[in-house]
Design a protein that fits this description.
The longest helix is centred in the first third of the chain and has 12 residues, at 13-24. The protein is α/β, with parallel strands linked by helices and 158 residues long. It has a 5-stranded parallel β-sheet with strand order 2-1-5-6-7. Strand 1 (2-7), helix 1 and strand 2 (28-31) form a beta-alpha-beta unit. It contains 5 helices and 7 strands, in the order βαββαββαβαβα. The N and C termini lie close together (11 Å). It has helices at residues 13-24, 51-57, 93-99, 122-127, 147-155, and strands at 2-7, 28-31, 33-34, 65-66, 76-84, 107-113, 134-140.
Length: 158
């Protein structure tokens, strides 16, 4: 079986580390791209009416993903899902991604980036979106210095 690194990156930070992760463990990579890209104004956490604030306050929000789906999701036994932490959880587009596939029997490992917080309620907030899968809090990717360090961390979850 194979490993997939799926990531959402609103500003590029998570994307850089997720791409490195995929390369270091020889995994396939898939970018979770929103149909409507996020602007700086959308990401303003101080504005209660900003798009990201509205989405995070509505746990049923499911931003639409653009582009092709992962054609061969059934071939992957482990899926690393990488995302920035928003409001102490995952952005709801991660729920959209997981709900787009049958994840039964898969190991889903969460990797994230954050300016100041940990995973918060991410595992709990994603469990209903991937019934039958095992969701594990993986690792915060902030401050990873080398590809060897990144590989060693990832291999603990394979």
């Amino acid at each position: 079986m194979k490993t997939l690194v799926a990531y959402f990156s609103a500003t590029g930070t998570t994307g850089v580390v997720a791409s490195r992760l995929a390369k270091t463990i020889n995994a396939d990579v898939y970018e979770i791209t929103p149909e409507v890209p996020y602007t700086n104004a959308d990401l303003d956490w101080r504005d209660k009416q900003s798009r990201s604030s509205v989405e995070m306050n509505d746990k049923s929000s499911r931003p639409v993903i653009s582009g092709a789906k992962v054609d061969n999701m059934d071939e992957y036994d482990t899926v690393f899902v990488c995302f920035p932490i928003w409001w102490y959880s995952n952005p709801t587009i991660i729920n959209t991604f997981l709900e787009s596939y049958n994840m039964t029997g898969k190991k889903i490992v969460l990797f994230a980036t954050s300016g100041s917080s940990g995973f918060g309620s991410s595992v709990e907030d994603l469990e209903g979106s991937a019934p039958g899968a095992s969701i594990t809090e993986g690792y915060m990717l902030n401050g990873i210095k080398s590809d060897d360090e990144l590989k060693a961390i990832a291999e603990k979850f394979l």
